[in-house]
Write a structure and sequence with these properties.
Ribonucleotide Reductase, subunit A; 36% helix; binds fe (ii) ion
């Protein structure tokens, strides 16, 4: 994991108040270096305060047990009231060895008591890909480590068909003083399903996804209360407008596609064309995300070095979009570029906590995970043209992540004790939330072409959480 050590050292070195660590091997340690760049951010982490009043008032009515230790209330919310004992059998076909991608070939390749090397199919934009991957099950909570609990199948969207360990903020209702409800929720972030168990609070804006607009899920993602979360899966920061990832629809045009060397030799592949078109649209939109962050920095009186880094980041995103549209055009065999980007409803929020909330969730954590993902994708990519694009993205996104952490460090110097404590607690929760994704969603996985499936992404996220994000948060708190 040398690449993660390198990432940690690079980001720590960008913080003016921190000496670089050298814990657990890999990178060589240095003393503090100022790396004058950073990264953009945008606000609006998808979690708003309630304008409908506390929703936990009245409690869970008409509770019906839907599985041992799990109840469903009459309004559809699901709570955990206790543990259970479940059948750990994994009813999925074993690996045949003929699948498109082989992360394992037999059960012997998978470690742990209730594990299996399964064969599965993933669908993406009308295409399908087969793969083999290790999955694990549990019978009781005692089979789960790190504070996770065993949840039976059929309770939440996106779960596998066997009981799995799930990360929790509470184990049962008795852990949740305020509302006395330990809720289970699932959220499709656009890259795959994530499930978690968290206390419901008086600040929640929803109980179930029925309380949210179509396309949103009620989830306590990255925040202390249950809110309507919208998907936004990208390397780097999405542009969120009214908590929804905003992108331009594709259209036929050639002036956005970068004519990079090697693109012309790529074989047509509709699945990869769709993948890169989606990434291109997100990169294109993130130009506006940096424009908004720049305005927020100005509003909050930020130093010039952060503004300069923000401007540079917006230029980087234009180039990322051009490269991604170039790949999409090459794989699709036809020019593709962005149409109009609808910015109706875009608000430049300059409230300190709102800026910091977006910064922490989407930039400090989101972009650091993005760098780690891009590094892992580049490492596995054997297609030269794609690898070059990913390596360029790694270099740029590292600067963007540095900007995020440097911005947070500066914003904390402007904060009251209360605001500082709030921000550090949010940072801690956001990092802890990464482990909610147990990697049960496998996703479209073609590592040779630089595309990571859900299992790999979840693994990269967990490793980055422990080896990069937690030390950075610790450094800021000290
Ligand atoms: Fe970025
Ligand atoms: Fe980017």
């Amino acid at each position: 994991m040398k690449r993660l050590d390198w990432l940690r050292v690079s980001l720590l070195a960008g913080l003016t108040g921190c000496a670089v660590d050298v814990e657990d091997g890999g990178a060589e340690g240095q003393t503090t270096t100022s790396m004058g760049s950073g990264q953009p951010t945008d606000t609006d982490g998808g979690s708003e305060s309630s304008d409908t009043g506390p929703v936990c008032e009245g409690g869970c009515e008409g509770a019906v047990e839907i599985a041992e230790g799990i109840v469903e209330c009459s309004d559809g919310r699901i709570n955990r009231v206790g543990g259970g004992t479940f059948d750990p059998a994994i009813n999925a076909p074993g690996c045949a060895g003929t699948e498109d991608t082989l992360h394992c070939t037999s059960d012997a390749d998978c470690s742990g008591e209730y594990t299996k090397c399964i064969s599965a199919t993933e669908f993406f934009e009308g295409f399908e890909a087969t793969y083999c991957g290790c999955v694990s099950a549990c019978a009781t909570d005692s089979d789960c480590t790190d504070g996770r609990v065993c949840v039976p199948p059929g309770v939440l969207d996106g779960q596998p068909d066997w009981p799995t360990c799930m990360a929790v903020g509470c184990a049962t209702n008795s852990d949740c003083g305020e509302c006395g409800e330990c809720g289970l929720g699932a959220f499709d972030d656009g890259c795959g399903w994530v499930q978690t168990i968290q206390c419901r609070t008086a600040n929640d804006v929803c109980n179930t996804s029925d309380d949210c607009d179509p396309g949103a899920d009620c989830f306590p993602h990255y925040d202390e209360s249950w809110t309507c979360e919208y998907s936004g899966c990208a390397i780097g920061r999405p542009l969120l407008v009214e908590a929804q990832a905003c992108t331009a629809a594709p259209c036929q045009r050639s002036d956005w596609a970068a004519p990079a060397p090697g693109f012309a030799g790529l074989a047509k592949d509709p699945q990869l064309a769709a993948h890169w078109a989606e990434i291109a649209a997100l990169e294109h939109a993130s130009v506006a995300s940096f424009a908004r962050f720049g305005s927020q920095l100005l509003a909050l009186g930020a130093p010039a070095r952060l503004l300069l880094a923000c401007k540079r980041a917006a230029l980087d995103e234009i180039e990322h979009a051009r490269l991604a549209y170039g790949l999409a055009s090459a794989y699709g065999g036809a020019w593709i570029g962005p149409g109009h980007l609808d910015l109706h409803g875009l608000v430049v929020e300059a409230d300190w906590r709102e800026v910091v909330r977006g910064l922490i969730v989407e930039a400090c954590v989101g972009e650091t995970l993005g760098v780690a993902e891009a590094m892992a994708a580049a490492e596995g990519a054997s297609e030269g043209a794609v690898r070059q694009v990913l390596e360029r993205i790694v270099a740029d996104e590292l600067r963007h992540a540095q900007l995020a952490w440097q911005s947070l460090e500066w914003l904390l110097t402007q904060a009251s004790d209360d605001d500082r404590s709030w921000a550090l607690a949010l940072l801690e929760r956001t990092i802890a939330a990464i482990n909610f994704n147990g990697g049960t969603n496998e996703g479209f996985d073609r590592p040779a072409e630089g595309v990571l499936g859900g299992l790999r992404r979840a693994q990269v996220h967990r490793e980055t959480s422990a080896r990069v994000l937690a030390p950075l948060a610790q450094a800021l708190a000290s």
